[in-house]
Amino acid sequence: MTNRSRHIKPPLRKKREAEPEVRRPGPIGGVRDTNRKEKAAAIKDAALHLFLERGIDAVSVDDIMKRAGMAKGGFYRYFETQTALVEDLIEGARRLMVEALEACSVDLRTASTRDAQFAAYRKVGDVVATLLMEHPGEVRLYLQECRAPAAGPRVPIVELSKVVSRYAISITAQAQAHRILKPIPVPVSALTVVGAAERLLLAVLQEEDIGNPLEVPEALTTLILDGLKA
Amino acid sequence: MTNRSRHIKPPLRKKREAEPEVRRPGPIGGVRDTNRKEKAAAIKDAALHLFLERGIDAVSVDDIMKRAGMAKGGFYRYFETQTALVEDLIEGARRLMVEALEACSVDLRTASTRDAQFAAYRKVGDVVATLLMEHPGEVRLYLQECRAPAAGPRVPIVELSKVVSRYAISITAQAQAHRILKPIPVPVSALTVVGAAERLLLAVLQEEDIGNPLEVPEALTTLILDGLKA
DNA sequence: ATGTGTCGTGACCGATTGGTCATTCTTCTC
DNA sequence: GAGAAGAATGACCAATCGGTCACGACACAT
Lengths: 230, 230
Prior knowledge:
homodimer; 230 residues; mainly alpha; 9 helices; DNA-binding
């Protein structure tokens, strides 16, 4: 087992401790409970910053815990593995995004008027804007890591990206059925939007010089409408 | 010095050997020379496959040399570091791409007719198609790794992506000056195209179900023209 | 054929890894 | 306040890392 791929293969020995969320010790508002939440947040915060600075693969458990001001051994009281940490990290943003895409898909299925159809699209855009404001780090982590091979701690990120692509394709297919969009091959139409949107998000989050970030959604909408609209 | 970041910091001891290309042993067509080229190619081939399977960060020198059927120590007779290997790996594709972008930029500067202007664009598209056919592995490696933080062996890839973005913005600015494109903020217009094109390339190279790959360039062109054209 | 220098090998080095565990410290329950 | 239980620590483990090096094998010039 190479050191580089240790996270890919299953651990040789079984874990002693697990499921930190399932059984909670002490009173719900007590010191224990409060500390636990604070420490877990500190670990996640430290991990996110290091992941963004160095890339997920280049960050060790020791690095994370040092930045969080704790000893290495404590990590495993909060997370079973690094993969579980990443899952936890992106869970909030993931749920928001998936729910928005699912809602759009459902709305689009029943929308009969043009207005209702465009409203379904707009809601996704609103959620993306919300994500950008409330989870910028998580979104940037997603954009940085989502294309690399799914191995080790990156697995949940790559899987999310596959879900997003699938929804984009499904939604595009429905939009074409409604004749909102040009009859371009559906995956091409869908992935064009995904690719363009993700690249622009990355530019905003990495503070590339992109002009006024607030103009970006409008410009993108114009491009998509003129380029894809039937 | 953490193990994870060992490639970032300068080596403690100085290298004994270097510049494998500068001084070549023996006759140019001799056994030595032939072997050297074959082995170097074998190393690069093994490295590329492993990089694509696991991601650059998850591949060790030992992994590469084992796959190439050689002993670890031999690696450093061919490449100073893993970073040099990656530079060498993408050099061919990089040169093609940069030269095409530079040529487009120059052509666009002097193009007076619409036809000449579109021809300048088309040449870049042709080179991308060539890259796709002749260097599919290298292109895929670029797409997989270009967004992660620039550290260690990934540095040359990330730098190439910055060059590409800069050229895209510069070319877009010229096109807007020619009034070929809508007066959308230049970086937005440029990165939209880059993002869309890269995502579609990735889909083709990863064999996502995208329909007939030959239709992709045409569809993308249609989208860009309708979406961006003035 | 002989000497010269390169090539390839695999043991070796110090550092670091994910993960474990006995021990100590802190909070909880009573 | 005392005993029980969870939480935190840091030494520890085997494996692996990038990189080096002495040495035997091989290609070259003569």
